[in-house]
Amino acid sequence: MQFVENENTELKKSTSELKQAITSIVAILNKHGHGELYFGIKNDGTLAGQEVSDKTLRSISQSVSNHIEPQIFPIVTKEIEKGLDYIKVIFKGNDAPYFAFGRSYIRVADEDKLLTPAELENMILQKNIYQSKWDSKITEFKLTGADDRTIQKFLEQTKQSGRTPVHSDDSKVVLTKLGLLKNDMLSYAAWHLFCDDQPVELQLAVFRGVDKSGFADIRISKGNLFYLLETAESYIKDKINWRVEFREDMKRHEIPEIPVSALREAIVNSLVHRNFNDPKGNEIAVFTNRIEIYNPGKFPEGLTPEDYIKGHERSYLRNPKIAEIFYYTRDIDRWGSGLQRMNKECNENGIHLSFDIMANGFLTTFYRPVDVSDKKVSDDEGSIEGGIKGGIKGGMKGGMKGGIKGGIKGGIKGIVLSGDLMQLPNRQKDVLLLIAENNRISISDAAKQLGIVRSVAQKHFDALSTKKIIGRIGHKRGGYWKILVSLEKLGI
């Protein structure tokens, strides 16, 4: 067995270091709530051995229980490795802050740091916040203030997720069984989840550069948490860049520059874990090089985002009832794993992600793969011309049999639709891509490639012309189509 000293594990050469061991147990409990300690192991992991008797084990157990407040009861056992005896101590506790000999410590790497009065005060404050279960308390708001459509939509989502907690369509029955209603009065969780008339605010903005010196769009939304989640997700989807690809199945695929599931996870976390007693709103800020998602709500004291990314920490729920409701809709898949999932997905897609613990909040930042303010049009790549050349190259490479398929795939890879163009109906997007690949395409040929009748294709061409996105140059038979929107608007 390998022995390594870290944030959860302490190694002591012998029981002569019992006092220091008790200090380490307190430090680990205050940081992680559980851990292990060994006597008879040097701090470099070398097995030294330790004389062990029943009296020794009892003495350790009694000393730990007598000198740590609040009291804990460790499991102390004798172990044997390579013919040498040593002692294993397993401990846990959920009542931090803990004290050893009247002083409190916190684990930092493999060291025990004495907590300052300010840090200790903050730990006690955080403990009260997390244990108060404030969101289960009853408000003065009546059931009639809840939006029945939101409740019914919630029920539909739980059915789709396979986590239906209540088999009833009656709003009163649902909220009562979920512990969100008592004597027709809503709990704080129910109020924030299902009532539109409330103070929770979401600020959304797009900035023209990498700082807040100038903005292109700014909005403020208020409403229930489900509405704010939907609003935030739609806003970000509209503001990020998307590329359209035709893959092996020859179907269109819209690919976001940042994985939408990771963005949604960050939004859900920011709403579920916010401090609802703080009047400051949640924020979504879109810069040319990054997207920031901020929520007012301090990170659990003594822990870091890295602790959760590694998957070794339990979740601290500031708003447990609200978190439970989002679990039923599968917006929270498993408590305490959100940061880990976001980090994994961004790594798989080459997106840099950072987490910052702020004085009174938490910030998640997704760095965009390309600074949209620095986009340039080249002759061969990132432009319509590049797409066409790619299409020709793909067609030549594919030969007669694969020419058309290779041509379409090669051409469309050079085109990225973003901004307003992403709001077009899908068929109009398809038409636009076909024109970019072949500006002399006829409406009849476009209809065949799209699998629709000519009259329907004509309507899509006419719609794009009316919107001044495309125009016809020259004679009906000998002319060609021209894309009228700027290359910058195309996002290429």
The tally of beta strands, per DSSP, is 21
Counting helices, strands and paired strands, the structural category is: alpha+beta
Domain count, please report it: 3
Alpha-carbon distance between the two ends: 56 Å
| CATH C-level name of the largest domain | Alpha Beta
User: Residue-averaged pLDDT, rounded?
Assistant: 84
Q: Can you tell me the CATH architecture of the largest domain?
A: 2-Layer Sandwich
What is the third-level CATH name, the topology of the largest domain? Heat Shock Protein 90
Low-confidence spans: pLDDT under 50, at least 5 residues?
A: 371-418, 487-492
Name the helicity range.
25-40%
Question: In one word, what is the shape?
Answer: elongated
Main sheet attributes: strand count, strand direction, barrel closure: 6 strands, mixed
Roughly what fraction of the amino acids lie in strands? 15-25%
Strand order of the largest sheet: 13-12-16-17-19-18
Radius of gyration: 30 Å
Helix count? Answer: 16
Provide a compact summary of the structure.
This protein is an alpha+beta fold. It has helices at residues 18-32, 54-67, 117-131, 148-161, 171-177, 188-194, 225-239, 260-272, 305-309, 320-328, 338-348, 384-412, 426-437, 443-450, 454-466, 487-490, and strands spanning 9-12, 34-39, 68-69, 75-81, 84-92, 99-100, 105-108, 111-114, 138-142, 181-182, 185-187, 201-207, 215-222, 242-246, 252-256, 282-286, 290-296, 353-358, 361-367, 470-473, 480-483.
Account of the 3D structure:
Residues 371-418 and 487-492 have low confidence and may be disordered. With 492 residues, this protein is α+β, with helices and mostly antiparallel strands. It has 16 helices and 21 strands. The protein starts with 8 loop residues before the first strand and ends with a helix. α14 (443-450) packs across α15. It has 3 domains: 9-115, Schlafen, AAA domain (Methyltransferase, Cobalt-precorrin-4 Transmethylase, Domain 2, 2-Layer Sandwich), CATH 3.30.950.30; 201-372, 2-Layer Sandwich (Heat Shock Protein 90); 384-490, Winged helix-like DNA-binding domain superfamily/Winged helix DNA-binding domain (Arc Repressor Mutant, subunit A, Orthogonal Bundle). The strands form 7 sheets. It has a 6-stranded mixed beta sheet with strand order 13-12-16-17-19-18, covered by helices on one side. A 4-stranded mixed beta sheet has the order 1-2-5-4, with helices on one face. The chain is 39% helix and 22% strand.
